[in-house]
């Protein structure tokens, strides 16, 4: 197992793999983890300097039940299975999840009339626990809702999750189970061959018998490298506002809109970090790098959010961000095996990929078998227990036993998010250390709070630049620490 970020890639036999997965977002990392159960040589290659640095870091972080998926689609099945698999995995790996449940709020008669149809659709998707609420019960359940809410469909099981820890847990477990992770390693050319395809990067060439495209927004461009043109990815931008922790008491459930033509619409949801999120927009663009926010987009969100939860607009905004969904003009994923090429495309993973990731990975294992992979006997994965970033679970600064073992876990560096020096040090010596300050934030929450690093930024940077200290290991965090 190894993680590389710089320098030439391995050569000779060390450059030969049974399967290479390209793209270390939540989907590619889940696939690499699934493959790591078998006695195979696996590599995960990523263009960015960290895992989960694409769409996987910038979404609305809902673990969906799939109640509103188009029945009968691959997406509907994989979201339903993924919800179950990731729920169980999160408990095992320490990924924060809060099963708050969702309320789909109707604001006019047309929307109210739609709710029973949505309940029927949920039933066709295997969800029999939805329930219609009248205006009075809805007001009691969500006292801060704006005037005019007529009723809601309650969807138990919809949950909020930490998207950063999810990708990191998959990739960490994959690496600890023997997968080679090559970061800063964009695959620029593919030279198909038999028995090996050659993957050309600026750091050298890797060879692989089978190849998986998990390139997210760039899945179409990667397909073109192997001579396929099956779909085009259109980035659909979603802008979001994150409100301060003082807003958290305003909302108890995930408040979903009745879906419209452009997807799931604008929601208001608590986050596992104790904030409240409003968004996302849905804008079809041409530019796959357009992850900036716009004054117009944010103003539109505030207008819609003000109707749903008026008091939210009095709260301070901690951060704004945008993510790009990989839309392909088809209301389903674009996952396909190409046995003649020993190649699997995992494209069009639109607005549900976080939820479905583990089920997508299992599905891809089956497709790789169709392409000729004989994985051999499965073995247990190396256990992994991730540092907790969730407010609903014990954090290190409150853990007297941990602090007694290592006082640095009682020394707060980032006061807004209560991140300790011990957590930062542990992240720096973890299996996949952060490649920069943003990566460190995704592992610890440092610099992610209301001051956005104004107070702690210099100290966090100094710790990052100082790097791992002699003799330290993440093991001080506890058993199975990454
Ligand atoms: C606004 C928004 C809200 C969302 N909300 C939710 C939600 O609430 N719940 C949910 O389940 N899902 C949600 N999603 C969807 C979810 O975020 C995505 O489906 C998921 O992150 C896609 O993961 P991925 O691994 O396919 O793509 P990515 O995370 O984009 O990963 C692809 C990776 O491939 C790399 N790459 C590309 N080309 C190459 C190359 N040639 N060589 C090497 N590496 C390459 C990229 O650098 C990137 O890191 C949302 C998405 C958005 C945008």
Automatic annotation (TrEMBL):
Keywords carried by this UniProt record: Oxidoreductase
Oxidoreductase in keyword set: yes
Classification via PANTHER family: GLYCEROL 3-PHOSPHATE OXIDASE (PTHR42720:SF1), GLYCEROL-3-PHOSPHATE DEHYDROGENASE (PTHR42720)
Enzyme Commission number(s): 1.1.5.3
InterPro entries xref list: BFD-like_2Fe2S-bd_dom (IPR007419), BFD-like_2Fe2S-bd_dom_sf (IPR041854), FAD-dep_OxRdtase (IPR006076), FAD/NAD-bd_sf (IPR036188), G3P_Oxidase/Oxidoreductase (IPR052745)
Name of the protein in its database record: Glycerol-3-phosphate dehydrogenase
Enzyme class: oxidoreductase
Pfam families: DAO (PF01266), Fer2_BFD (PF04324)
All copies of domain BFD-like [2Fe-2S]-binding, residue ranges: 412-466
FAD dependent oxidoreductase domain: residues covered: 18-364
Organism encoding this protein: Streptomyces nymphaeiformis
Keyword Amino-acid biosynthesis: no
Signal peptide: none
GO MF terms, alphabetically ordered: glycerol-3-phosphate dehydrogenase (quinone) activity
